[in-house]
Amino acid sequence: MNSAVILDAAQIAYARLNSVQAFVDHLQLAARHRWRTVGSPAGPLRALLPPVTISGVEPNMGAIPALSEHTAAILKDLGFDAAQIAAWKQAGVI
User: Fold this and answer.
1) Whether the Cβ atoms of residue 5 and residue 16 lie closer than 8 Å to each other
2) How do residues 7-62 score in pLDDT, each as one tens digit?
């Protein structure tokens, strides 16, 4: 017996699972303009908009940062001074 028949008989909801390629190629994502191109260290990439939309507000779809691009700024915001950050960088900790 086919699994769809068994699930139907048991009144269990089910659906087909798309491949990653089928998801990327889904016509509704293109029709609803859900894709954006963002920059990255590897070059431009396609990125999907967040699932929640607010009328009149365009989500920030900035470039993907390079590895450790913002580390020093984040550590500074956490209260570490420039000397400590430089020492960690010199030691290869960051």
Assistant:
1) no
2) 999 999 998 889 999 999 999 999 999 999 999 999 999 999 999 989 999 899 99
Range of the domain at 74: 65-94
The phi-psi region of residue 84 (left if phi > 0; otherwise alpha if psi is between -120 and 50; otherwise beta) is alpha
β-strand pairing of 35-38 with 45-48: antiparallel
* Domain match, 22 and 59 both: yes
What CA–CA distance (Å, rounded) separates 23 from 94?
37
Q: Does residue 13 fall inside a structural domain?
A: no
Name the burial class of residue 73, with classes exposed (0-12), middle (13-18) and buried (19+) by CB atoms within 10 angstroms of its CB: exposed
38 domain-assigned: yes
Same-domain pairing of 57 and 84: no
For residues 88 and 75, membership in a common domain is answered with yes
